[in-house]
């Protein structure tokens, strides 16, 4: 499932803003990797991102895509999720939200979260990340 053009546009603006702030060098491949994650709500695997990027850049290697995913994750521009053993999925929705994970199909959906977790003494709010994962089994 793809996201709205408005939401994708907002994500791309935030991404390009981070680039302009000097946090990382812009390359066509990095932009394509970010766009492949940001354009969908499916929380794609690295392989799914690679397939999406190869539609426009057929020569891009899996290693390049995977390295860029790691760099974007390290900069906080995407989230890395491990909803099940051995699975790694990526998410451009960096706002506070939880995940509904269908253990039967592997589908992941965002769910809104209200409020913030308690902040331990001496830790800045900006340094806290949390997620809630709700597992269920349904469908084919
Ligand atoms: Zn998400």
Automatic annotation (TrEMBL):
GO molecular function ontology, one term from the record: transcription cis-regulatory region binding
Pfam families (alphabetical): FUR
Name used for this protein in its record: Transcriptional repressor
GO biological process, one term: regulation of secondary metabolite biosynthetic process
Organism of provenance: Candidatus Uhrbacteria bacterium RIFCSPHIGHO2_02_FULL_60_10
InterPro entries, per database record: FUR, WH-like_DNA-bd_sf, WH_DNA-bd_sf
């Amino acid at each position: 499932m793809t996201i709205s053009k408005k939401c994708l546009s907002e994500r791309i603006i935030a991404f390009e803003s981070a680039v302009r702030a000097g946090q990382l060098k812009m390359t066509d491949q990095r932009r394509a990797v970010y766009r492949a994650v940001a354009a969908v709500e499916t929380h794609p695997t690295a392989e799914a991102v690679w397939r999406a990027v190869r539609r426009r850049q057929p020569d891009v290697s899996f290693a390049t895509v995977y390295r860029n995913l790691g760099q974007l994750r390290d900069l906080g521009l995407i989230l890395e999720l491990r909803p099940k053993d051995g699975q790694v999925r990526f998410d451009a929705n960096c706002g506070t939200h939880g995940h509904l994970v269908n253990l039967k199909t592997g589908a992941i959906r965002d769910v809104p979260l209200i409020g913030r977790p308690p902040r331990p003494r001496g830790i800045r709010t900006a340094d806290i990340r949390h997620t809630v994962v709700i597992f269920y089994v349904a469908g084919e």
